[in-house]
Structures are given as structure tokens and as C-alpha cells.
Amino acid sequence: MAQLKIEQGSTSHSAYNLRPSFSDVEERHTLAVLVENEPGVLARVIGLFSGRGYNIESLTVAEIDHTGHRSRITIVTTGTPQVIAQIKAQLGRIVPVHEVHDLTEEGRSVERELALFKVRGQGDKRVEALRLADIFRASVVDTTLESFVFEITGTPEKIDAFADLMRPLGLVEVARTGVAALSRGAA
């Protein structure tokens, strides 16, 4: 009778190696969900996430078709590939949901976010804040003798980088819209 020797830590593909090969690496995904624009839909979508302990990094929602009463919810979330697949499947089962698109998996997409930054400062810090705003193509939308309010549009990473640079210069308040995203190309 032949003996089978299995070494510890072996990753060979055999019937004796029953460990699942699921990835436990978390990935960031942007989901576009087309829904009926009716009361309670957003609460049901959010309830799906909170009820299962999934995190939402960014959430935007707006009506996109007034005559058809449709809204688009853009959700940025993280999870393992299995968790993302589960989220998409569960979103698709909610009755007022028409379509679920994973923009991350469907190919290249354009993501933008709008943010407002209030920066308080005088002297050199004020001049430096204006210089950095110019580099980041941020607009001054309000100014007083003590502070500026900057408006900036870009990727979430660009917004984060601007915030990091403004903190030591007197950043006092931030308002962000969340990610708006569309897939690239004709489709």
C-alpha cells in the first residue's frame, strides 16, 4: 500500500489539502447602483451595509433621471473579493435596485470629489496656503482677513494630499462631497 506524505504548510492542489484558497486581501471598489427615486431606498441600501458590518468609505446619491424617477448611488467600499461579490449580489436583490455596476472591475473609470477647506492663518502661513492652493488648482471661494475657504476638485488622493499640507498651515474645517464616478469609454 502506498503512503501519502503531506508536508505541513504544503500548498499543493490535492484532495487532502482542503484549505480554501480565498483571498483575504482587502480591495477598494467603487459601485454604481441605479435605483428608483423613492422614499426609503437609500435607507435599505445603507441598512445592507450596516447590518452586515461592511464599511462605506464614500457615499453620494442624486436623481439622474427626473422623468423616469431614477437615482444613482455611488458607493466606495473595501472588502475581500468574496465580500465585494456578496455586497453586489445582495444589492441586486433589493427590489427598487435596477442595476449594480462595479466600476473597479468593469475597467478604467473617472473618479472625482469636491471639497471645501477653511484655513485660518496670517503672515507667512497665509502666503504659503495661497501658494499651495495655486499648485493644487484650488480656488479661493471666500476670504476674510483671518481665513480662506478653498474649493478643490480631484481624486480622493489629491484631496487627502491637499488636506495633509493645509493642516500645519491652520486647517480648521473640511467638507467633502464623496466620490462621483463614471466608467471610461463609450459603454
Explain briefly what this protein structure is.
This protein has 4 helices and 9 strands.
Secondary-structure element pattern, one letter each: EHEEHEEHEEHEE
Oligomer: single chain
Q: How many domains make up the coordinates?
A: 2
Provide the gyration radius in Å.
23 Å
Tell me the strand percentage band: 35-45%
Based on the structure given, which CATH architecture of the largest domain is correct? 2-Layer Sandwich
Category by helix and strand content: alpha+beta
Please describe what this structure looks like.
With 187 residues, the chain is α+β, with helices and mostly antiparallel strands. It folds into two domains: 27-102, ACT domain (Alpha-Beta Plaits); 109-183, Alpha-Beta Plaits. It is 25% helix and 38% strand. It has four helices and nine strands, in the order βαββαββαββαββ. It has helices at 41-52, 81-92, 124-135, 156-166; strands at 27-36, 56-65, 70-79, 97-102, 109-120, 139-143, 147-154, 171-176, 180-183. The strands form two sheets. Strands 5, 6, 7, 8 and 9 form a five-stranded antiparallel beta sheet that branches. The longest helix is centred in the N-terminal third of the chain and has 12 residues, at 41-52. The termini are far apart. One of its GO terms (molecular function) is acetolactate synthase activity. Its EC number is 2.2.1.6. Keywords: Amino-acid biosynthesis, Branched-chain amino acid biosynthesis, Transferase.
